[in-house]
Amino acid sequence: MHALRARDDIETLQAVHIQANADFLVGLDSARVASFAWPVQRVVSAAACFDRLEQSYASDPRSQLVVRRLRGETAGWAWLLADIAVRARVADGRASVDSPELLAANRMLANIVTQLVTLRDAQTASLRAASDSATRHLVIERTVLATTALAACFLFCYALIAHYRARLARQSARVIASESERRFRQYFDHHPLPMLIFDVETLSILAANRAAASQYGRTRHQLCSLDMAALYAQADLPSFLRDLHALLAAATTSGSAGVCRHRHSDGTPVYVELSYHFLTYGHHRACFITAVDVTERKNAELALLLRSRALDAIGNGVLITRPGPSGDVVEYANPAFEKITGYERPQNAGGDHSARPETPGLWQQIGTAIAGKREATTLTKSRRANGTEFWYQLYVAQVRDESEKVTHHISVVSDLTELIESRDLLVRQARRDALTDLPNRVTLRELIDAAILEGHEFALLFIDLDHFKDINDSLGHGAGDRLLQEVARRLSASVGSDGVVTRYGGDEFVTMLKGSTGDAELSALLARVTQTLDEPVQIDDMQLRVRMSVGVSCYPQDGTDCETLLKHADLAMYRVKAGGRNGVERFAPSLAHEAAQRIALSHKLRNAVEHNGFELVYQPQVEIRSYRLTGVEALIRWHDADFGTVSPTTFIPLAEDIGLISSIGEWVLQTACAQAKRWEEVLPELRMSVNVSPSQLTSSDFGAVVRRALAASQLAADRLELEITEGGLVAPGALPTLRALHDIGVSIAIDDFGAGYSSLAYLRSFHADRLKIDMSFIRGIGSSRADETIIGAIIALARNLRFEVVAEGVERAEQLAFLAEAGCEIVQGYYFAAPQPAANIPGYAASLVGELHELQK
Length: 857
Known about the structure:
Elements: H1 2-30, H2 33-36, H3 40-56, H4 61-87, E1 89-91, E2 94-96, H5 99-144, H6 149-190, E3 195-199, E4 205-208, H7 210-216, H8 220-224, H9 237-249, E5 254-263, E6 269-281, E7 284-293, H10 295-313, E8 317-324, E9 327-333, H11 335-341, H12 360-371, E10 376-383, E11 389-400, E12 406-415, H13 417-431, H14 441-454, E13 458-465, H15 468-475, H16 477-495, E14 499-505, E15 508-514, H17 519-534, E16 537-539, E17 542-544, E18 548-555, H18 562-578, E19 583-586, H19 592-610, E20 614-623, E21 628-640, E22 644-646, H20 648-658, H21 661-678, E23 687-692, H22 694-697, H23 702-713, E24 720-725, H24 726-729, H25 734-743, E25 747-753, H26 760-765, E26 770-773, H27 775-778, H28 785-800, E27 804-808, H29 813-822, E28 826-828, H30 841-856
Keywords: Membrane, Transmembrane, Transmembrane helix
Organism: Paraburkholderia atlantica
């Protein structure tokens, strides 16, 4: 009787715990969590059961100890539920609790129920043994008392009573078990944490609650048709099996596997925090798991790790500091910061380093920005740890918390040394001639304007070397360049401090003489110059005598502005050339004849514009690596019946002066686009490059002119490229027009790059597609280390700014090899082909394929 009652008490306690937990969870929806789980009646019932169990096990100290421990754990669990209820957050009529606390309560309940099940199974086994013993005694008694009817009747009655009680006990056990199963199912199905039960032998999923089905994007039925392996990626499955086997081998009833990666039904990863509880489920040796979704936390950790690695990898220096008692303490310095400054991770940005005399710039500015409690940015120069100077841009920003308190400062240091040095090089190049290192025409104009503004007298000597073209044609451009360099040196030596020698372009020099412009002074200087140049110039194994034509204009007698003075000196120089060269001519009114000729040429030019008297030829642009024709440059030609073939360098400036350049430019654009369209079938990827003068760019309707040409020819915009000089890039209003054309697909190339005077600011504000290296630098390959260095710098600058590079004026294999090694992609010049008529281009493109095959043999 005591054993049967003990089993009843154990099953009652199971039901009480399950019902208490179920009522607690139901209370989550009604925001009355504290009033549901452990009412007084339930507490009294549980205490009575524990009291009877202690009496039932009075002869079994070990089982009695288990009962007392269970009483204590039940009390602890009830207090935990009460604590959770007290701290539950109520919103919209529902209570919300933290998952970690709910998970701890579930673990305690699972442990209590597991011990009760174990105790019940032991008691059931004891009852079965007692029943077997009673049966044996009953047989003996029946045999002994078979002789007496009274004994038989007694035994019969006893048997009926025993049978009735046994059947009643079984029915009671089934009712209790059914009720326990129902309450467990309710607890399991409605629990907010995802829960699964799986067979530890086959890994088959035996049960899944609604939260698990929602978390994995499947129905419960679908989950129960899978095994646990289906929830893992192939790479993660071995780790799960290893953890499971380790827990089984340890013979523990519960455990945790930390954070694992499961899979949603759509294949996306779901990071879960797993806890295990081993139990018997039906006839299976099973494992009960809770899988709390921590994907958001894991993704945040991964994102933080990614940002940390990105900071370590970027090229800019990053320094993170926080306020400390004696200055801002460095919490983080990435490798780039250490590389840029040369210092290992500093300990105090606001104190020690700001006092160091060898690093006054960087640390002082960081400390000043931090102390000023503001954002700051600056471009300046400092010294590295090894003493070398470097340019850098510094940006310091604050990091604030929710209360707007500054918690950290972030300093970003960008090393701009190479960029600044490249800029300085280009600025120098814009003001000085790369070949001779003399001031160029830009500097000359500035000097003239300054002297006029100050009212000083001066003279201009416009010097042109006679027959220089013949030297270039016979001895090559290298010899011509060396001759120009020697002439520049001698002119500078002869003029000395009396003036400034500038290279105006090509074989032209302009000398500006300060002071008196009387005939005596000019004659004396010209005598010195002539005497200096009379000495032969040694070029390779040849001695060359230099002859020059010189035109002179004086301020203020011959003009009151820079353009007039240069024009008059130029007219006087051409008068010398017309008269046989090798002489000196001062500007005089007698030069009206030249002006008349110019008027005649202007009339002819207008007639050519009206009657389409021009033609275009096309110079190929070839990709070095593949020998593929990538584009052509359209070049205008004009042949007049009276003047003959007139050079573009003659009639283009004239067209700009008399207002015809827009008409000529529009004709060139329309003709070039139409020709590119006609080539489309045989040369579908060919790019057509058209030169555009600065005066065209300043025209308000230039964009419309380009669009009309594209529309009339039906040529795709990305097949057209406009070549502008550096002067065109800085022309007023040019940038908005170029941006608008670039937006519709038209490519922009900066022509004669390095010979002009644009700044890096323009390259930054307008991202062109290509840079065309000026041919004056290309001529210096093999003979001028300076030219080769500048070419390398331009190519490196273009690569960093993501421009393509085209080298024009390539005439020798040596130049081609140097450019290819330096990283230049495309070349143009007589090495491949002179400008060609349109009919020759398709055949030339085909011939390049043959040349490539020959080179590859």
